[in-house]
Amino acid sequence: MLRYGGLCSSVIAILVICKVWLFPYMLHCMLAIGDLGALLYEMGILVLGSTALIMYVLLGHIGKYRFRLGRKRQLACVLMLQFPFFLHGWLKMMSVSPHMVTPLYEFAEGWCSLIAEPIRLLFFVYPWTDVIAVTLSLLLVWIGRGLRTELDDFFFFWENRK
């Protein structure tokens, strides 16, 4: 269970690092500040959001078929994966001033907006996007648990051979 939680958090953390620090830095180095940079940043957000949706489905599938986690254990891991949403809400309630923005706050903001920001860009809906993002990520993990491939039978046979 600990290995699965570490895998999930590292995969999502890599996407967040790309969204918050890597892509803006690359756009800053390659392009002048203007409309093209903003357009490319929005496209990058959409691409990373769709990648995050696929990753949630894959993490659900891997949890069931590779790590052999039951429903309760995988639910516990996925709820721990949603901790930055609660951390972000708590930091917003603390009314963080712009002078007190820390890397922890930036990371929590990036984690929360990984799925929520593409929803805002596509559907122009701002209220409830964090709740929609948490619900959508949980739903995608459960959809991933329901997927079955031919390789699952092969790996199960390969691991249980004598």
Description of the structure:
The chain has 162 residues and is mostly helical. It is globular, with a radius of gyration of 18 Å. The model has no long low-confidence stretch (mean pLDDT 82). Helices cover 81% and strands 0% of the residues. The chain is built from 7 helices and no strands. The protein has one domain. Helix 2 (35-65) packs across helix 6 (129-146) and helix 4 packs across helix 5. It has helices at 2-30, 35-65, 71-81, 83-93, 103-123, 129-146, 150-159.
Order of helices and strands: HHHHHHH
Helical fraction:
over 70%
Strand percentage, roughly? under 5%
Determine the structural class based on helices, strands and strand pairing. mainly alpha
Integer-rounded radius of gyration: 18 Å
Mean pLDDT: 82
Number of helices: 7
Number of strands: 0
Q: What's the overall geometry?
A: globular
Stretches where pLDDT falls below 50 for ≥5 residues?
A: none
User: How many discrete structural domains?
Assistant: 1
Cα end-to-end separation: 25 Å
Q: How would a crystallographer describe the biggest sheet?
A: none
Entry keywords:
162 residues; mainly alpha
Short description:
The chain has 162 residues and is mostly helical. It is built from 7 helices and no strands.
Write the layout of secondary structure elements.
Layout: H1 2-30, H2 35-65, H3 71-81, H4 83-93, H5 103-123, H6 129-146, H7 150-159
